[in-house]
FeS assembly SUF system protein (Chitinophaga polysaccharea), 108 residues
Amino acid sequence: MSEAPISEATLREQIEAQLKTVYDPEIPVNIWELGLVYEVKIKANNRVGIDMTLTAPGCPVAGDIIREVDEKVRNIEGVSDVDVHLTFDPPWTRDMMSEEAKLELGFL
């Protein structure tokens, strides 16, 4: 007996939960709350596309963050593949952070 396919909503929740465990080592807030994830797309066969940015184009840990996002989302049961697309358009600003992140970092 095979398992029922995972719903897109459930998969999206699991992806979001994993993205909330990825941190920029220089900032004590996760990339989701920082507003670095612009879009999560779930395509055919549960192939996941993630459009994201970094706080600065010259981020010295960019490769590490992208690799961590890829690994954590790829390890979710049901995900067939992951494509992480790094963009700086639009450029990240503090306004993209959640209220929680702004509070944590003392911007409120």
